[in-house]
Amino acid sequence: MRFLLILALLLPVFSFAGEAKDIADDPVMEMRMIRLAEKVRCLVCQSEPVSTSHSDWSNDVRAIMRDKMKAGATDQQIMDLLVERFGKSVLFDPPVDKETMPLWMAPFILLLLGGLGLFYQLKKRRGVVVDTTLSVQDEQRAASLLNEPSAALNDAPEPVGQAGKKDTQA
Amino acid sequence: MMRFILPFVIFLVLSVFLYKGLGRDTREVPSPLVGKPAPAFMLPQLHDATRQFAPKEMLGKVWLLNVWASWCGACKDEHPILMELSHQNIVPIVGLDYKDKRLDGEATLNNAGDPYNLVIADLDGKVGFDYGVYGVPETYVIDKKGIIKFKLIGPVTPQNLRETILPMVAELEKQ
């Protein structure tokens, strides 16, 4: 019974395997091809690697990869061939070079700009906020407000607003 | 004042970039083949398999290589435009029947009309792959020296013909 159950669980796996029609005779090579195809973007289906895509174009690319591998090409040679034909956008992980530099650098440049902006803002603010000493009257007011929380709460909006104004004026 | 203008300017710049990004077809990737010699090949013609064609036969001429197929819907859209272009006799158009059945390709041209100076049959798509074809139709402008000058992904329209392809052909003819 248990064996049957396990068999039933495996059924979908078999049906999936049946879908992949054309595979290389050599399973090792097929594995190598799939691993390489994972790094290649399917150009007709956006954000999907050639390794999993069912599109016609991806089928062709996989077939060509197999052919080239059978002919003894290295992974690098195959990738170079694809880049030569379709451009660097076929690579999920494009190389850092002159052309892609702006793309790679953009986040850091933006971070730097943001940081600089923040730095100058904070620096400017430091000049604006000046330490002031409270007058005797203000100190007494503050003390009375702090010591009588219930009274302070009752008419909180007004005195606090006034105190704030006075502070900035001082 | 600056504290309002600066964020507003940044917002505007960002909006323009994002808006342009929205309008772009992300499937259109710039072809790395532009500026490079058209890959060499030797293929039989569609109507007569005993006759071969190689791109070097077109050296000295500016020509269009139009990749199409009988199974391709957008090719039917551009077909009348290519027909008209061929009547005007401005530039030779070589058709490349991509991943098609010979009979289907022939039948399509017999029924709808044949805008091509000649058609080659790339039945297994190997040459298409060399040209970086990933969606049909695609059209290449190739100069007198056999250099690919432009690649159009998608159908030829009256607009891109008038604004891009024909001016480029005229320019290349002068060279």
Strand residue content of chain B? 15-25%
How does CATH name the architecture of chain B?
Answer: 3-Layer(aba) Sandwich
Mean pLDDT of chain B equals 90
Q: Low-confidence spans of chain B: pLDDT under 50, at least 5 residues?
A: none
| Poorly predicted tracts of residues of chain A | 14-20, 160-170
The quaternary structure here is heterodimer
Secondary structure category of chain A: mainly alpha
Q: Note the run of SSEs of chain A as H and E.
A: HHHHHHHH
Task: Give the overall silhouette of chain B.
Answer: elongated
Q: Please bin the fraction of helical residues of chain B.
A: 40-55%
Mean pLDDT of chain A: 78
Percentage of residues in helical conformation of chain A: 55-70%
Number of strand segments of chain B: 7
CATH fold-level label of chain B: Glutaredoxin
Largest sheet, strands/sense/barrel of chain A: none
CATH top level label of chain B: Alpha Beta
Gap from first CA to last CA of chain A: 88 Å
| Largest sheet properties of chain B | 5 strands, mixed
Report on this model:
The complex is a heterodimer of chains A (170) and B (175). Chain A is mostly helical and 170 residues long. In chain A, 68% of the residues lie in helices and 0% in strands. Mean pLDDT of chain A is 78; it is low at 14-20 and 160-170. Chain B is an alpha/beta fold and 175 residues long. Chain B has a single domain (29-174), classed as Glutaredoxin (3-Layer(aba) Sandwich). Helices cover 41% and strands 18% of the residues of chain B. In chain B, strands 5-4-3-6-7 form a five-stranded mixed sheet. In chain B, α3 links the parallel β4 (93-98) and β5. Chain B is elongated and about 75 Å long.
Could you write a compact summary of the structure shown?
Chain A is an all-alpha fold and 170 residues long.
